[in-house]
Structures are given as C-alpha cells and as structure tokens.
Design goal:
Largest sheet: none
Shape: elongated
Helix content: 55-70%
C-alpha cells in the first residue's frame, strides 16, 4: 500500500482521465482543432491541483509518522528541530513554549507542518523542497525526480499561465496533456518512494511507513 497522499492523488487523477476521454469523444474524426482548448486547459489545472494537494498531504503524513516514531524532539532531524524552535520563538502566543512539554511537541510539529503545507504557493521544486526540508528534514527532495526539477517547474508555469490568462494562454494539445499526466504521475511515484526510504532510514526500527509505490499502469 502506498502513502495515503498517493491514494488521494490517484483518486484526483480520475477527473483528469475523464477530461482526456471527453476530448477524444468530442474531437471525433478528421484533422484540425475542434475548439477543445477548454478541455485540455482544464486538464492541466486539475492535474496541477492533484500534484499540489499530493505534495501538501505527503508532507503532513510524513511529519506525522516521523513524530510518532521519535521519542524526543532532539532526535528529530536537525533541520526540523531548527524549524520547530524558530516557529515557537516567532509565535505571537506567549504560552506557545508550554505546548512543547511532555509529548506536546508532536502536536506542535504536525500542526506546523499543516500550516506550512497550507501556505505553499505553487508546487514548484523550490517550494516543495523547502516544505519537506522544514517539516521532515529531507534536503532537495526534487533530486529524486528523474525528469528533473525544471520539467515540473515548467508544467506548473503552464498552469499559472492558464490561471492568469484564461483563453489567452498558450494552446495545450491533447498530446501535451497526456505527456504532463505521465510525467507528473511518475514523479509522484518517485517522491512517494524517496520519502518512504528517508523515513525508514531516519526512524527507530527502520519499519516501512508504507509499501513501495507503483502507478496504476505498472500494477
């Protein structure tokens, strides 16, 4: 079983799959465009939303697992310790430090992960890397992406162009949407497995937080 975040990601991909299928039905036979840019643009937006939600949910899921397996906050990865200390020091709540007592630091850690995930601007490599380093301790998670960070960033920029320019954005052909679907899904699989391996290596007992992840197409 993959992470819960990946299960959610695949569920959200259903809408993208249906848009691709709808495009085929609406296009019919013959050459040339059929004015179906709204379908492919919608597919890009939904696919990017699925990717963004996946990154956010996986960060929180990984942080929750990490806290549940570590006995003391001083056993967390150093980057996470620094981030938690920083968040408590900068809190406007004067009693915030008291929440760290006993096992309270675990809730503080998870709550902070949820807050940071909720504030992630766009799922580009820099933002994803920053989130996972702060809440889990992984440096440069995007290094596990075989297509490279630039490819994911370019895809997110296409989504941004659509969001800001609507019909004036560059036309997205159905083959392009299919390519994005394949590449983003493969990247999510790699991300799931990279985070899994990191958690195994950085928690006592070295147990699997979830089984190795595979896409539906490879099952």
């Amino acid at each position: 079983m993959s992470s819960q975040a990946f299960h959610s990601f695949e569920y959200n991909l259903v809408d993208v799959d249906r848009l691709i299928q709808s495009h085929g039905l609406l296009k019919g036979v013959g050459q040339g465009r059929r004015g179906l840019g709204h379908v492919t643009r919608s597919g890009v937006v939904m696919l990017c939303a699925a990717w963004e939600m996946y990154c956010e949910q996986l960060a929180v899921e990984a942080a929750t697992y990490l806290s549940s397996k570590v006995r003391l906050p001083t056993k967390l990865p150093l980057a996470v310790q620094k981030e938690l200390s920083k968040s408590v020091k900068e809190s406007k709540h004067e009693l915030k430090p008291l929440q760290l007592s006993g096992g309270g630091w675990k809730s503080v850690h998870v709550d902070h992960a949820e807050n940071l995930a909720g504030w992630m601007n766009a799922p580009k490599s820099t933002n994803v890397n920053d989130l996972f380093q702060k809440v889990v301790g992984i440096a440069r998670l995007s290094d596990c992406w075989s297509i490279g960070a630039a490819e994911i960033d370019a895809f997110v920029e296409v989504r941004g162009d659509i969001a800001h320019r609507g019909r004036h954005a560059a036309y997205v052909v159905i083959g392009g949407l299919g390519y994005y679907h394949q590449q983003v899904t493969a990247t999510a699989v790699e991300t799931d497995n990279a985070v899994r391996e990191y958690l195994i290596a950085n928690t006592p007992g070295g147990r699997n937080p979830w089984r190795a992840t595979r896409s539906r197409a490879s099952r």
